[in-house]
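Input record (one chain):
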Amino acid sequence: MSLIDYQVKDAVALISLNRPEKHNAQNEPMLEELDAAWRKAATDDAVKVIVVRANGDNFSAGHDLKSVTSGYEPSADKSQLEKAYGWETEFYLGFSRRWRDVPKPSIASVKGACVAGALNVIWPCDLIIAADNTFFSDPVAKYGIGGVEYHAHTWELGPRRAKEMLFTARSFSAEEAFAAGMVNRVVPVDELDTQTMDLAREIAQMDAWALRQGKRAVNQTLDIMGQQAALQSAFDMHWLGHANSMLTTGYPLLSAAPLPAESKKDES
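The corresponding structure, as predicted from the sequence alone:
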């Protein structure tokens, strides 16, 4: 079974996470398929808008901690650390950066749990529509790590709400995300797909060159403000967090800890 569903409808590429039995927790094959879908949509002239969504009740529980996705074993050995750092640079920070800069408008359509590594998937998108049952969380501070790999918290939430998210590790609702400016719209869960497609079709009516240039102008403004440098710096600090996690919580250096009980899962 494919871990990513891909279809094109009305000039809209629909990229759906398809591991609902695991709450769409991300393992290496899923991330590879997801990146391939982004690349396909980016180069298809028939596609003007990209929608990232999920099958099942939850958008994503984040990283799948039950699969060894990177081909390395938890170890403090220098060669293993270098390999692991390179893997996370590509699969987490690298993929997210690449998706963010795809020269077509993108919409994340989110419902249910959107936890930790799931933020790496939605934050690169240009717009976010959240169902009213969505909750967002980055709980990794509980385990000695200062946030997920694509550390866009400040840009997405503003400094004070970003600090609250990181300091408390609590979940917050779609309405709270909307109030912070992270989410464009909050809609009833049974209207999520319809309202997402309505917005995507509306955008798809616009001139493709104008869409590309508008997106580039905004992204370049963020870059001039230092977003890319900040993401890289935070990613390197994230890696110090792996070591701190091992020392303070006993979790393996190259792994992470379970989610809070509210998500009823063991992935993050």
